[in-house]
Amino acid sequence: MRGWAAILAPTLFVALLLGLWEGLCRLLAVPTYFLPTPSEITVALAQNAPLLFVSAWRTLQTALTAFVIVSGLAGIAALAAASGRIVEDSFRPIAVILQVTPIIALAPLFQIWAGIDHPGRAVISLACVAAFFPIYSGVLAGLGSADPALERLFDLYGANGWQKLLRLRVPSAVPQALEGLKVGLGLALVGAVIGEISASAGGQEGLAWRILEAAHRMETARSFAALAALAIIAGLLHLVFRLIERRALAWWRG
Amino acid sequence: MSEDPLAARDAVAALEAVEVEYPGRGRALGPFDFRLAAGEIVALVGPSGCGKSTALRLLAGLEAPTRGAVRRAAERGETSVVFQSPTLAPWLTAAANVALPLELAGVGGGAARAQAMAALRRVGLAGAETARPAQLSGGMAMRASLARALVTEPKVLLLDEPFAALDEITRRQLADDLLALWADQRPAIVFVTHNVEEAVYMAGRVVVMTRGPGRTAGEVAVEGPTPRPLGFRTTEGFRHTAERLSEILRAGMEAAA
Questions:
Q1: Contact, A138 vs A81, CB < 8 A?
Q2: Contact A107, A194 (CB under 8 A)
Q3: Which contiguous run of DSSP H or E holds residue A38?
Q4: Which of A24, A37, B25, B114 has the maximal Cβ count within 10 Å?
Q5: Which residues of A38-71 are buried (b: 16+ CB within 10 A; e: fewer)?
Q6: Does B60 sit within 8 Å of A158, measured CB to CB?
Q7: Rounded to whole angstroms, how far apart are CA atoms B104 and A167?
Q8: A157, A252, A254 ranked by CB distance to B101: nearest
Q9: Residue B151 has what pLDDT?
Q10: b/e string for B206-216 if b means 16 or more Cβ within 10 A?
């Protein structure tokens, strides 16, 4: 019973909202350029499917590339920070600045640095910045989360720093690192889209570009269709990562 | 005082007038004297917070005293500790957990694994080598923890309320098994507990501590063979020793109050 309700209730709720949207738009005769109905968006989605698919793939590639790069960088930074209090304290202001600065504000600078010929680099860099902090802090917190009793045992057996790091702290970090990676993956996609929007003049062909392009032409239904495609890949990305996370945690816990 | 006090009395570890103070909490232990002879089993009994676990950590070299001296004849890797919780790494199999102390000491993977398997067999965990800690029952996890402590064939084995989290039946079974294992390798054992009966059953000598900061309230030798014969708990000697210990324990509580 509970299983069915868990699927049925949200489905019905979304269907209800879409129905309301459709009905109100028709009833009030809202112009399509202002707010298209769900049925018009569906048609736009179907008509533009091949193009949207290519664009979605492009955005996904950007986000995943950034995710891989930033996972490595944030992981190394967290390992360095975990090596000593002083290093962690030294990193903190930069980590905090990276976290609190709206990445859209960094976009113009990144475009200058990437140069006019490589707008893609600016987009990937922005996605990296967006995803850095949660991964860094997740790995760092994980590295510090080793069971103190197990740590005492390692001391007792005369483990050196490297042995403690590789055999105790890194394995202990797995659950929290995964949590950080999950948040980071979502933010990498957000960063990729923000990067694409800010680099709109640079010939990027991602989903953000489709949204902008359609909006500029007042083809609002197409804009919504691209938005829907974005929501779908974000949802899929989250789902896939959760599956991986669950597997990894099941293995970790034994 | 010219000769080494450890060598003179065949002791493997000793605490000499040690005191331990923690910032903000005041004195946790002492002044406290303790001597552990090779191959003997000593139980440390005292009320909660008397500092008996602190004394154990001093003996293990995991902590340094604020005042006084700790003497340890055992070298690195010759002291093992078993905590109240099994403290196994969840991501490692039982065998890998047991092999860990050997690998940390530089023993090669294959040899360490073989010794770990043998240690698991000795504690009655043959067949559970590839199980993860989460798949083991409380008693089995504690056996794995014991196997890890014994795999290095330590001279000194320190046990910090190892059976406290187990049910009575498992606890008694493990107590007998531990004594049988002791008869095999004969490490010196310090067994910390707050259970008087358990102390008398396990140890040849019971040291009673006062309420914290703990000092020695008294000491009682336990007569009888080790491992314990069947029905040892019902003998007159056992009951009598337990009574005397309870008496000393009570006196120790009042003296400090």
A1: no
A2: yes
A3: helix A38-47
A4: A37
A5: bebbbebbeebeeebeebbebbbebbbbbbebbb
A6: no
A7: 9
A8: A157
A9: 92
A10: bbbbbbbbbbb
For residue A147, count CB atoms less than 10 angstroms from its CB and return exposed for 0-12, middle for 13-18, buried for 19 or more.
Answer: middle
pLDDT(B3) > 50: no
Strand partners for B11 = B37
Q: Which fold has domain B5-74+156-256?
A: Rossmann fold (3.40.50)
Name the residue type at position B122. R
Which residue shows structure tokens 């000769």? B3
Helix %, strand %, coil % for chain A, to 5?
85, 0, 15
Q: Are B61 and B74 in contact (CB under 8 A)?
A: no
Which pLDDT band holds residue B2 (cuts at 50, 70, 90)?
A: very low
- Residue A2: band (very low, low, confident or very high) from pLDDT cuts 50, 70, 90: low
Do residue A254 and residue B101 have CB atoms under 8 angstroms apart?
A: no
Q: Residue A45: pLDDT above 60?
A: yes
In this predicted structure, what is the pLDDT of residue A242?
93
Q: What is the pLDDT of residue A111?
A: 86
pLDDT at B95 over 70: yes
User: Where would I find the H helices in chain B?
Assistant: 5-9, 52-60, 94-104, 109-122, 138-150, 168-185, 196-202, 236-256
Distance, CA of A152 to CA of A147 (rounded, Å): 9
Nearest one of B173, B33, B146, B125 to B81, comparing CA atoms: B146
* Residue A41 token pair: 């968006």
Which residues of B fall within a CB distance of 8 Å from A152? 62, 81
Q: Calculate mean pLDDT across residues B68-92.
A: 86
Compare A67 and A208 and report the one with higher pLDDT: A67
CA distances from A211 to A157, A194, A229, B50, B230 (A): 60, 12, 10, 70, 82
Best A150, A151, A152, A153 residue to mutate vs chain B (most B CBs within 10 Å): A153
- Sole residue written with tokens 């105790």: A168
